[in-house]
Amino acid sequence: RHEQELDAALHAAVRAHGAVDVRREAVEGQARAALLDASATADLLVVGARRRTGHTGLQLGRVNHAVLHHAACPVAVVPRA
C-alpha cells in the first residue's frame, strides 16, 4: 500500500520531468536512519516541510534537522504548497 501511495504522490512530477532519474523506495524503520542511509548513494535528497501558521519560515522537525546536518549528499527542503 505504501509503495502505491508513493507512486501516486510522485506521478505528476515524474511525468513532468522525465529527464530526472527518481528512485522510489519504501523502507521500514526510523525515517532518520532510512534517509541518511539513502543519502550515501544519492545525488540529491529531497525532503518536505510544513509551514506552520503563526511562525515565520519553515519549522523543521528532528528528522529534517538530522538530515540537513548529517546527509552524505546535498539536501533540498521543499515546503508544502
Give a quick rundown of the structure.
This protein has 81 residues and is of the alpha+beta class. The chain has a single domain, classed as HUPs (Rossmann fold, 3-Layer(aba) Sandwich).
So what's the CATH class? Answer: Alpha Beta
State the helical fraction: 40-55%
State the order of secondary-structure elements, H for helix, E for strand. Answer: HHEHE
Biggest beta sheet attributes: 2 strands, parallel
What is the number of beta strands? 2
**How many domains is the backbone divided into?**
1
Structural class: alpha+beta
Oligomeric composition of the shown chains: single chain
The whole-number mean of residue pLDDT values reads 85
Determine Rg (CA atoms, Å). 14 Å
User: What spatial order of strands do you see in the largest sheet?
Assistant: 1-2
Which architecture name does CATH use? 3-Layer(aba) Sandwich
Overview of this protein structure:
With 81 residues, the protein is α+β, with helices and mostly antiparallel strands. It has a single domain (2-79), classed as HUPs (Rossmann fold), CATH 3.40.50. Helices cover 41% and strands 12% of the residues. A two-stranded parallel sheet has the order 1-2. Helix 2 packs parallel to helix 3.
Tags for this entry?
81 residues; alpha+beta; Rossmann fold; 3 helices
Q: Topology, please?
A:
Layout: H1 2-16, H2 31-39, E1 45-49, H3 62-70, E2 75-79
Parallel strand pairs: 1-2
Helix pairs in contact: 2-3
